[in-house]
Protein 1
Amino acid sequence: MADKILIVEDEVRIARTLRLYLEQAGFSVTAVHDGLHALPAFRQERPSLVLLDLNLPGLDGLDVCRTLRREGNVPIIMVTARTEEMDRLIGLELGADDYVVKPFSPREVVARIRAVLRRTQGATSTADTVRAGDLLLDLAGRRAWLGDHLLLLTQSEFEILAVLVQHKERVLSRAQLLEAAQGIAHEEFARTIDQHIKNLRRKMKDAVGDVPIIQTIYGVGYRLDEVVLSP
Ligand code: CA
């Protein structure tokens, strides 16, 4: 069955172009043109991914994103006019999986949607758990426990953590993290990797306090070692 994409975009011309390209790429598409209609459309259509414009009339993209996150972990790609804006917003733990900056090429958007879907759906068939000491990941159920704490992670955060655990005690570059997560390497996503790592660290710290779990290897990338929580 075709993956369903929900487009939330007030510029009707852009929404129409995206729909055209996405349908040609084999997706099924629903589009709404303001924030207020986003949630009802989401609940009715249950899309595989939401492409969400930041600046919307009614309810802005930020509020829509927060509301969607309360409903579950559907992959979200934010659309914005400015890169700096997005760096700040991802920092606000929005939980978006990726973002694209206007003006964009529709082909690029299709490629990014495919990459996020591969990343978020790719691991579901490996019915197994992986462990790094006190950190346990259920790859089939897509749940992560740190000691007794269930971590509430977005799909991208889970995917990146899974790659780190599967290659524990090895340094992974951002490019390797991208590749292992089957994403498409591009500069903006490399920056979002850093942000996802930051969010992961904060969630782990909230759960168990200041235990160093993901190491930054300056100039190279990241490494995760065996996790040992003090009793
Ligand atoms: Ca807009």
Protein 2
Amino acid sequence: MNPDFIREALRQVRYPGFSRDIISFGLVKDVKCEPGLVTVHIEIATRDEKVPQQIFQDCHAILDPLPDIGTVKIEIDVKDAPAAAATIGKSSIPGVKRIIAVASGKGGVGKSTVAANLAVALAATGAKVGLCDCDLYGPSVAQMFGVNERPMANEHDEIIPLEAHGLKLMSMGFLLEDRSPVIVRGPMATRYTQQFLRQVAWEDLDYLVLDLPPGTGDIQLTIVQTVTVDGVIIVTTPQEVALIDARKAVSMFAKVNVPITGLVENMAWFECDAGKKYYIFGKEGGVREAEHLNVPLLGQIPINVETRERGDSGAPIALAPPASNKVSAAFHEIAAKVRTKIPIV
Ligand code: ADP
């Protein structure tokens, strides 16, 4: 019996509710093997008492039947959520005061559009803002900001973000040789993402907006466990299929103690030239869902041709003057709420 063997065996124990195991999460802090006694020390940060109970049972279920193991002692140190940063390997990004993640349960609901416009509108409040596109498989920041150079590295081998419209921008897309999709999957994708997050020279930012990949899988989890996310904004359309996935996203982030800043209902309606509103994906599904989940509704964004066109042409709609553009105004209102909820410290 040796600690490496025990650690390898514990890779079969998953964090309750997730597909990642407790070893890759960095929760197993120490393994001691003495004659007739194996002691495993685990640290977790959660407010859900079922989590340590389940991990305790699962560790015993894996280790107890091993031959010649003797007595198995599983010690679990449960920390309260605010102390989570140190215990699950999170680290803040140097120079960045606040990190806001923008997430969605499913693709195509306008998550990247909301992330880009929120970043622009936050910058318009006078804050120093960066936007990081963390989507390995479908990066979109290059297109939305009309930038496509390859970034340079500084003397510390950190990538220097590009700049457009007063924002610092970084995207996995800037690093790809061509436009072919990245084919790494699983642990490789997780490792790439972690390295990517840690190796950008953001220098001095009030807010870093992270455009997460769509969905609620390991990559999203890795990101929120790699850096200290101050709040996550969930984007959904009012349609039931999107709401189901938004619910999953809210529950996933709540489980790992990432504060939910609120919900944005995108594609809420289409307003024709005569001013009549058409609720293409249903009416106020996001409003009801926010109430049901007891999370703030940060705003509703209509479907609008200019929003799509400006997104495609590198000048997000939030750059338009809010006084004369309703969609831009809606994004500026969302940004004002976010600034209040996540003040610059
Ligand atoms: P996601 O990041 O959720 O996959 P995107 O932000 O890439 O979604 O949006 C998907 C498509 O829908 C893009 O072409 C985008 O321009 C368009 N889109 C998003 N929100 C709106 C909106 N409110 N009005 C019009 N088009 C939108």
Protein 3
Amino acid sequence: MKVIKNFIGGQFYDAVSNNFLDNVTPSSGLVYGTIPDSDEEDVALAVTAAKNAFPLWSQTSLDLKFQILNRISDLINENLEALALAESIDNGKPLWLARRVDIPRAASNFQFFATALKHYASESYLNPPNVISTTLRQPIGIVGCISPWNLPLYLFTWKIAPAIAAGNCVIAKPSEVTPMTAFLLAQICKDAGLPDGVLNILHGTGPKVGSAIVEHPMIKAISFTGGTATGQQIIRTAGPMFKKLSLELGGKNASIIMDDCDYGLMMKETVRSSFANQGQICLCTSRLLIHESIYDKFKADFTSIVGKMTVGNPLDESIKIDQGAIVSEMHYNKVLNAIQRARDEGGTILSGGAKVVLDGELENGFYIRPTIIEGLGPETRTNQEEIFGPVVTLQKFSTKEEALALANASKYGLATVIWSRNTDHIHFLSQGLESGIVWINCWLVRDLRTPFGGIKQSGIGREGGWDAMKFFTEVKSITQVIPKS
Ligand code: NAD
């Protein structure tokens, strides 16, 4: 049994209540460890540790912060195998995916913000002849970082790295569904020389320890990634307390496939953008909008490729596993219910649509075949609600105007992909899309210097690059009039 502990003030503890939660691996549905069932008492201890650490950390030189963050990055890379294995067991994603994408990207988060903190600049404006206005950005103090289960270490570090780079002390909570890599990160940060109390990691459920973090009056900012409904709850609590909020929420992303695209590249990347990580990436495309002139060809080719995708034990490296397990039993049932609802709404299942039962010890794992559905209009619940699993719908359009209207027919606005080689189409669509991120002829290509995040109900307070550093600071405007000599 793997026993996970909280990390407070540089030490490892069980929850004050001495209560525990089971940690289940989705590949078999079996319990393989426990996590602390933390609550507001653990938050109080973490706040004290963070408060004690803040005066020194906020005054630590850029050089030393740079060295420590880089060392954390190096240690993540050095522990890549152990972290990838932990993430695959916790999350159900294929081991190769955790090794190739999630863990290296977590390392690069720390490396990026190590460098960013050295180049982060304030502004200065001269108003002739003798008025100078400057901005002074200072760390907020104690901040809360709450992350989801789909890219556990990557999204956890995406918050923590800029928060500590900006000089804050952090109370962080990973998802209770995927706690293992955060636990390993605690030891890595200790080994890298991060001072005690700068990063405190609490485990447990959202309603209990997550909301205790949001409610604590000394935690001045909350950076949250997760579902839109949870984001609304956080706003209800943190809004009246005037906390700074960055909320990265759900999505229902479209991919617009024009008939002038590079068909081979589009097909390869559309399979990936639809089903990578079992479709459990907030940036996955779940609504494929296809020009009518290539609809039948696309449907035949896509269905054929997806029908051959392998679903199996995420740790099996003897064959290439395309899809591992869905993250938890609760989410598995949610995705299966969504597929049934699509049938009830009149949709036709072109591929998948069923659970997969593996042999032996894995027979109770949470596996679903990649699923393609057609015949549903934009107003259906299937095309409106986030499913966050290996399920995509196909819709047909005849003009770029119609494609734009379909893409925007959602309360969400996270990411959209455009497949076209026609500059007019690309400009028209990218300017009209109600979407925080637009990818043209690619998917998931990220430059960490650009802001990340969605609009509409996909989020507020965008993160990434300077925006993330700015989010984790308070700004003062200082204006001075230089006396005439
Ligand atoms: P979730 O909202 O259920 O949980 C996210 C985190 O919030 C977890 O750590 C959870 O314990 C905690 N939490 C739950 N209730 C809370 C509360 N009342 N107060 C404080 N914390 C609380 O989301 P999830 O199921 O873990 O993740 C899936 C969702 O995350 C999907 O909607 C997906 O689109 C979204 N997501 C968004 C992005 C993005 O960048 N926009 C990235 C990844 C995932």
